[in-house]
Amino acid sequence: MRLKKIFPGVYGVGRDIATENSTPGFRVYDERLLRLKGNEYRLWDPRRSKLAAGILNGLKRFPFNPNSSILYLGASSGTTASHLADICPNGWIYCVEFSKRMMQDLLQVTMKKRNMVPVLADANLPAKYLHQIARIDIIYQDVAQPNQAEILLKNSELFSPRFAMLSIKSRSINAIESPKKVFKREIEKLKDYFSVLEKIDLRPYDRDHVLVNLERK
Ligand SMILES: C[S@@+](CC[C@H](N)C(=O)[O-])C[C@H]1O[C@@H](n2cnc3c(N)ncnc32)[C@H](O)[C@@H]1O
Predict the structure, then answer these.
(1) pLDDT tens, 185-204?
(2) Of 7, 52, 74, 110, which is most buried, counting CB atoms within 10 Å of its CB?
(3) Which domain holds residue 122?
(4) Is the peptide bond before 204 cis (omega within 30 degrees of 0)?
(5) 19, 76, 96, 147: which to mutate for ligand 1, most atoms within 8 A of CB?
(6) pTM for the whole thing?
(7) pLDDT digit string (tens) for 120-166?
(8) Ligand 1: does its nearest atom lie under 6 Å from the Cβ of 45?
(9) 3-state DSSP assignment of residue 72
(10) CATH code, 211
(11) Domain total for the chain?
(12) In this structure, is residue 9 part of a structural domain?
């Protein structure tokens, strides 16, 4: 099998994508591990990760590099955050999660992947975790809350990231209105602070979300 570099730290393997495993032998979510040319790679499942779905659906501007530090809002058990930890081995992935149950699973991952920092906190209250976090380059947000745009703006004001990526779930904001209208209105709220680089529909991997790629103005 041949490896094709797609972005820094992201490889195409046949029809799949993968990241180089920073913790060889360790799996986060039953992903397949491949050994190629003396290195180990973790296949990245687009049905489990909106960022993987976005890459497979044609994301063009990839803001992450090996030195990036990321504020990850809504880390859950660490599926996507663990791939970002592989992609950014010299940076920190600050993983904010407010569910204690999810945090228990996340801790199993952060104990292995040493550049992931668990933060048990509500993303609505960034001042409470400001002291735990150093420089941030990118905010990645996937919280499925009705006030997604507001959460991103509050965090951006405190952490001043150069880029942000936001997964918007229309049904968490308004279950009745058409998803298109909901997406448009949420993105409108961000326009004073961010320019929209790309907006990616995640179907067929995910029916409910769009991934919005943003750069600070
Ligand atoms: C859709 S899941 C995230 C999946 C994860 N991003 C991935 O790709 O691996 C959303 C997560 O956000 C968390 N969450 C929701 N609201 C939050 C908030 N206000 N602060 C912190 N975490 C929150 C939920 O507990 C849940 O684990």
Answers:
(1) 889 999 999 999 999 999 99
(2) 52
(3) 46-216
(4) yes
(5) 76
(6) 0.96
(7) 999 999 999 999 999 999 999 999 888 999 999 999 999 999 999 99
(8) no
(9) strand
(10) 3.40.50.150
(11) 1
(12) no
